[in-house]
Structures are given as C-alpha cells and as structure tokens.
Write a structure and sequence with these properties.
Blueprint lengths: L1 H19 L4 H22 L6 H18 L4 H36 L17 E2 L8 H18 L17 E2 L8 E6 L4 H12 L2 H4 L1 E6 L14 H14 L1 H13 L8 H8 L2 H14 L4 H11 L2 H17 L4 E2 L1 E4 L2 E4 L7
Parallel strand pairs: 3-4
Antiparallel strand pairs: 1-5, 2-4, 3-6, 6-7
Length: 349
C-alpha cells in the first residue's frame, strides 16, 4: 500500500514539481525517477504481483531518516502509522474516483450528479428537485452510496428507451388544442420557479396550441411527506377538482399562478409560496374560479371535492407513476417526442 499511496501523492504533486523544476531542473529528474518506481510498483499490484520491497523501504527511509538518528524507538510505531495512512489514502482515492464516475453517469442518465438529492448538484439540469432525506448514520450513508449505484445502472437502459405518453395512466388536465399530434405529458409543480419559466416559454411559443398537451400538476414531497412548496398541494387538489367540471377552470388556475401578478407587482407564485396561509390560498383560488366563469355552486363543489378521498387517491396514483415508474428526480419533466425531458423547456426544443 505504501507504494500505491506514494504513486498517488507523486501524481498529485506532479503539477507543482513541474513548475518548481523550471528553476531547479534536478528536482524533475529526481521526481520522475521516483514516479517511475512508484508506477512500476502499482502496475505489479494490478497484475497481482509483489512490489519491490526496495522502493517501499526507500519511501519509509526518506520519511523517517531524521527520526532514526534522534529517536530510534519511534521508527517502528511510525512505520506502522505510515502503513495505515497509506491504506487510508488508497481507499479515499479509490472512493473518490468511483464517486466521480457515479456522478458522471448520474448526470447522463438522471440529469443530476447527486442521485438522491439532485438540488445539491450544480451541474445537472435546471430543476426543482425531488430530494430524499439525509442518512442519519454511517451505515445508512454507506447503504445509500451503493443504492445510488443501483439506481444509476437501472437508469442506463432508460436512456435508450422510447417513451409513449399513452403508456402511463396519469390523471391529467388536457390543455393542448391539437389532438391530431402525439400526446405530450407535462409534469410540473405550481410552486416551482423553473416550471413557471417553462410554462411561460411554452405559452409564448404557442406550444399548447400546436401539441396535444396533458398537464400533470404534481406537488413535490419529501420522505417525511412534507411538501417542498407551501401551498402546492392545495393548488393541485383544486386543479384536479376543477378539471372534473371543466378543464378550462383548472388551466385558469395555473395560468394565473405562473403568469399573474398582484397589485404590488409580485408574482402570485411567490405569494402562494411565501405569504398566503392555507385559508388565504383557498380564497384566492376561489376568486380565480369565479373570474374564469365558475358559478357559486360549481365553486362550492370544487372546494369540497378538492379535499376528498378521490382527489387524495389521484395525488397518490400520480406520485407513484412519477417517482417509481418514470423515476423522475426533478420537475418539470416532460414526455415529448418519445423522450423523457427533465429541466427547463426552451422554445428551440
């Protein structure tokens, strides 16, 4: 392990040695000589052969030369410590390399370098992530690390899969006007700012007029069943309840949230996420339904139906499809032209 650890350290400091060797050419010769020995040892380890003990002793002697003269009794315990540190260095580097590989594969397959907490990855698609709870101990963390590998490998075939919107039994709101085109599933959270930008882009580009779009309002939940955005669940419930009477009522709600602003020029999405209590959110939704043409009787029916067991079952059913069948890690997500697209929708897509 000492030889392998030495190669890792030498490889890391190689850049600095190269710079310093501009002024001290002899240093580069000494460095390359040591690096070649370390590489030779590493190559033998790969082939399950023994390293030359001479190099291992050279490393130890270099590190312990001064201590040998002043404190000879310290040599043996320090030698053991060097062996232990070498093992730690090798383990950490191997772990780092495997984690880097896993992160790259996760970005390719799942759109985020962090499998269970996509929001922690700055390299993935721009999304409102569906995060899992943090491990509470080292055993859970270790188990999570291996579980993430399983999710990544399981997702690789999905990259080559052709998706068909009709294969997923979603409860949805039909907003597209062109029923002659293939169905598009558009999963969004009313509280998600990325979903808001995507919706505006789609509306401006005439996407809803050109395609057969099925809107799937989805309130992101964590493992503890709390909602990521304050009033998303209420909005989703009202949308599905309103859709039972008239899809235009449900569309009017999301259109107001994603494109509307109050008298103070603050977006309604921000008001729902930050300011409105559940009662205030309910009253605002009722007023929008009235503006959309719903009668007093219809509004009362929608309000009662929104919190019924039937709507709860719809939310549970859609959540199962999103998280377990489609294995979505972030919102918005669309099934579009045979592909699963996660992240911000832009007009050139």
């Amino acid at each position: 392990m000492v030889c392998i650890a030495a190669f890792i350290i030498l490889a890391i400091v190689g850049v600095f040695v190269a710079i310093v060797s501009i002024f001290k050419p002899k240093l580069w010769k000494s460095y390359t000589k040591a690096l070649k020995k370390a590489w030779g040892c590493l190559w033998k380890k790969v082939r399950l052969q023994k390293c030359e003990t001479g190099f291992k002793d050279d490393v130890k002697n270099t590190l312990l030369s001064r201590i040998m003269l002043k404190h000879p009794k310290w040599v043996k315990p320090l030698s053991v410590i060097i062996e232990i540190l070498s093992v730690i260095i090798v383990v950490v580097v191997v772990w780092a390399i495997l984690t880097a590989i896993k992160s790259l594969l996760a970005i390719w397959t799942l759109g985020s370098c962090n499998v269970t907490k996509p929001s922690a990855c700055a390299l993935g698609a721009e999304v409102c992530s569906i995060d899992e709870s943090e491990p509470t101990n080292i055993l859970e963390a270790t188990g999570r690390w291996f579980t993430e590998w399983g999710e990544v490998f399981e997702a690789i075939p999905e990259k080559f899969k052709t998706y068909n919107a009709d294969n997923y039994d979603f409860e949805y709101i039909n907003v597209g006007e062109n029923s002659g085109t293939s169905a598009v599933i558009d999963i969004f959270d009313p509280g998600c700012s990325v979903c808001m930008i995507s919706y505006r882009n789609q509306k401006e580009a005439g996407f809803f007029n050109e395609r057969n779009v099925r809107l799937v309002p989805f309130a992101i939940q964590g493992d503890d069943d709390t909602y990521k955005f304050k009033n998303s669940e209420i909005i989703v419930r009202f949308m599905f309840a309103a859709n039972k009477i008239k899809s235009a009522y449900a569309v009017a709600i999301i259109d107001k949230i994603f494109t509307g602003k109050n008298s103070e020029d603050i977006s309604y999405q921000n008001k729902f996420n930050e300011d409105y209590s559940s009662d205030e959110a309910t009253k605002k939704l009722e007023s929008w339904l009235k503006d959309a043409g719903a009668s007093k009787k219809e509004i009362e029916s929608i309000k009662q139906d929104a919190f019924s067991d039937e709507i709860s079952e719809i939310l549970s059913k859609n959540r199962n499809i999103v998280e377990n069948e489609l294995k979505v890690k972030g919102i918005p997500t669309m099934i579009l032209d045979g592909k699963k697209h996660t992240g911000l929708w832009e007009a050139n897509q």
